[in-house]
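Milestone M4 deliverable, item 7.
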Amino acid sequence: METAKSAIRHPVFFNRYVEQVGPGDICNLLAESIQQLEHDLKIIGQTDCSFAYAPEKWSISTLVRHCIDTEMIFAFRALSIARKDPNPIRSFAENQYALEAEKEYGFHLLSQEFLHIRRATALLFQGFDKEWMTRTGQMENGELISVHSLGYIVVGHWLHHRKILATRYGIKF
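Output delivered:
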C-alpha cells in the first residue's frame, strides 16, 4: 500500500528513528524487517545478554525488552489513531518501564516475543486502509503524529538500537 509522503508527520524527536529507514511502502518494510530482526536476535542470543557496557546502563536483555515494550506502545498508538480515538497519545516513561522489567530473561523467550510482536505489528499495518494511514493523532504536548509515521518509527526504533548494540555493546551483526 503506497501512501503519500505527506502522510509522514511526527514530532522532530522521532526523526532519529524515521531517518534510519529507507524508502518504500511501510507495509513491505515492516514485513521485510521480520527477517532482519530474526537474524539480529540469533546473533544477540549468542552473547552474554546480562552485559551492560557501563554502570547504570541497560543490559542487552533489558534493551531488547525495551524494544519489545516500545513496539507494543507504538502499535497501540497507531491503532488508536486509525480508530479515531479522541484521547491524546500519551508518552511513557521508558526508564521506568526498563526498571520494572529489569530481570534476567531467558533470551529465547525474549526473542520469540519480539518476533511475535513484529509479525503482529506488520499484520496490523497491512489491515489499515490507505485513508487510515494518513490519519493523525495529537500527542500530549499538542504535536501531531500519523499512523504512517508510526510504521516508520517502529522499524527505525529497532535499527537505532541495533546500532547501539553494535557500537557500545560490541555485537557484530
